[in-house]
Amino acid sequence: MNILQLHIDPVYPPTNGGETRVWKTAEHLSSFGEVWLACPWQHDLELPGGVRAVPLDTVLLRRKALRIYAWNALQAFDGNHPLNRLLTRAVLRDLHRQVPKVDVVVCETLQMWGAAQQFAERFDAKLLLTEHNADFDNLRQNLAGTPVPAPIADRAVRNLREYERQAVSRADAVVFQSESDRELFAGSWMCARVIPNGCDVDEIRSAGDPKQLREDLGIPSDTPVCLYVGSFDYGPNRDAAHFIARELAPAFPEVTFLLVGRDPPQLDRENVLSPGFVDDLPSALALSDIALCPLSTGSGTKLKMMDYLAAGLPIVTTTVGAAGISIEDGESALVRDDADGMREAIATLLSSEATRDRLSSNAAALGTQYDWEQLLSGYDSLLPSDDD
Fold it and tell me: CA 260, CA 370: separation in Å to the nearest integer?
């Protein structure tokens, strides 16, 4: 079986949650045949296992300003706007040169939908759409409170919603990351499955070398650590970092707030440490006392939350951070949606070992449900069988 998978970012080695999800999916699908993973790769890249890199050589993907910001801005004119049509043609040109006949096309992002649909039609291949988020709802949240005039913002959201609804309706199967995202498309025809994000539970629990990482980061052995994991080139993660530095860190000068992930913002707080991407995530989790997820916007499930759970960390999160996960406030995490509530929750965890232990134990038990191998088996029945 030949499987084509399409994404707008290089995903190996993965450095954020979305890239990890796509790469783990590619690894799983490779057990069914050869996976052709099309992204704006470097041309000389070799991938492990049964995954082949298909370089997409277009400036429309290489520049984030075009593939994300301009693509979304032009939704104010039309869902299938001129930039989207140009991107579809450029991607198809590269696919036709490099990819043989395929049996399955897996589209990982709406920017690739036009190319995915046409390539699948060419070979009568099964077409799967992965909804990492409800994109129209993300756009609505991101435009709220901006200077964009309401009529323009509303039109952009409405156009993207219709474009996304058509994609969901026309795909042979759709994979959502949360039940709440699937419900946003109720009424659309679809064969749908909810497969949340996961983690490598055993790897996370290997704990790495937290003592060495603590020394490398210059964190004293007796200093409590609150951890936030995220790629800070993503707006909601960047907003969360500033929220931590502005609203949480000043209230706890005895605590180090550790922000781990690529492209960290420069934050002028003595007790906020942002070293950037850390290769040894298990060590960062193991050296921490509390995990934070103060996201205010977004949809889908947050991969950082799965890592926190698997590590058995006491978690303070917003409702957005807990979306799509079977979290019970006060049992597997403390769910707070404002700065006062988060400060109170952190203070409670710092002062109460019993509360920390209870949340830690319950989080670890819940985390075992989100192992990648178990979750990604949900794709198996969506693939063509010998009888198809």
Answer: 22
Domain positions in the chain are 2-198+372-382, 201-370
The CATH number of domain 201-370, selected from 3.50.50.100, 3.40.50.1970, 3.40.50.2000, 3.30.450.20? 3.40.50.2000
Predicted local confidence at residue 388, as pLDDT: 59
Which is it for the CA torsion 373, 374, 378, 383, positive or negative?
positive
Distance CA 23, CA 38 (A): 12
Same CATH fold assignment for domains 2-198+372-382 and 201-370 = yes
What angle do helix axes 150-170 and 113-123 make, rounded to 10 degrees? 20
pLDDT along the chain (388 residues), means of 10: 97 92 97 97 85 96 95 97 98 97 98 99 98 94 92 98 96 94 83 93 90 96 97 93 98 98 92 94 97 91 95 97 93 97 98 97 96 95 80
Distances (CA, A) of 194 to 133, 191, 299: 12, 11, 13
Q: Are 71 and 54 in contact (CB under 8 A)?
A: no
What is the arrangement of strands in the sheet containing 334-335, beginning at the earlier edge strand? 272-276, 256-260, 225-229, 290-293, 315-317, 334-335
| Cα–Cα distance measured from residue 16 to residue 276, given in angstroms and rounded to the nearest whole number | 12
Put residue 116 in one of left, alpha, beta given phi > 0 → left and psi -120 to 50 → alpha.
alpha
189: left (phi over 0), alpha (psi -120 to 50) or beta: beta
What is the per-residue pLDDT for 52?
96
Q: Give the position of tokens 């006949």.
A: 101
State the CATH class of domain 2-198+372-382.
alpha beta
Retrieve residue 345's tokens: 């929750």
Q: What is the pTM of this model?
A: 0.91
Question: Rounded to whole angstroms, how far apart are CA atoms 269 and 297?
Answer: 24
> What whole-number distance in Å separates Cα of residue 175 and Cα of residue 193?
5
